[in-house]
Amino acid sequence: MATRLVHEMTYDAPAIEVAAMLSDPVFRETVCRNQRATSYTVEIEGNVDAKAVRIEMEQPTDKVPAFAKKFIGATTTIVQTETWASPLTATITVGIPGKPGEINGTATLVETDGVTKETVELEIKVKIPLVAGKIEELLAKLLGSALRAEERTGKEWLAS
């Protein structure tokens, strides 16, 4: 079994401007801070046309329910990689090193009349007997919150 997350973010900017924002390490670092990361590294190779993004961050787990804390601890490390084959499409992998599970998906940018919609689709699979479904739902909730923080950051970034 797996849990599916589909999240849409809307930006009042052309797709190429959103793609440029997603290619900027300073933007990605700002997102990490706005996602409550206590430490992070951002690496981007390539440019707006095609890029590889790797973000590693440590986050507190103070908002995680007690049943899940015993599996992840007081903080957790998250590694996110994105491979953008073009300015508009990417594959995404999110991992928690040393924990049983995987999160894979895609991001797409679609522009209509100067407004860009970024759609992130993720499939969350956890391999822990008896609690996998609960942890997948929790991860979907936490990832949704992280994507909302990214969207708020992006709207502020593009407006400045």
Task: Characterize the overall form.
Answer: globular
Oligomer: single chain
Number of strands: 7
Radius of gyration, in Å, reads 16 Å
Biggest sheet details: 7 strands, antiparallel
Helix content: 25-40%
Strand order of the largest sheet: 1-7-6-5-4-3-2
Taken in chain order, the helices and strands follow as EHHEEHEEEEH
Report the end-to-end length measured between terminal Cα atoms.
43 Å
How many helices? 4
Contiguous uncertain segments of 5+ residues: none
Structural class, from helix and strand content? alpha+beta
Strand fraction equals 35-45%
> What is the averaged pLDDT score?
93
Notes on the structure:
The protein has 160 residues and is of the alpha+beta class. Helix content is 33%, strand content 42%. It has a seven-stranded antiparallel sheet, covered by helices on one side. Strand 2 and strand 3 form a beta hairpin. Helix 2 crosses helix 4. The longest helix has 28 residues, at 132-159. InterPro entries: DUF2505. It comes from Nocardioides daeguensis. This is DUF2505 domain-containing protein.
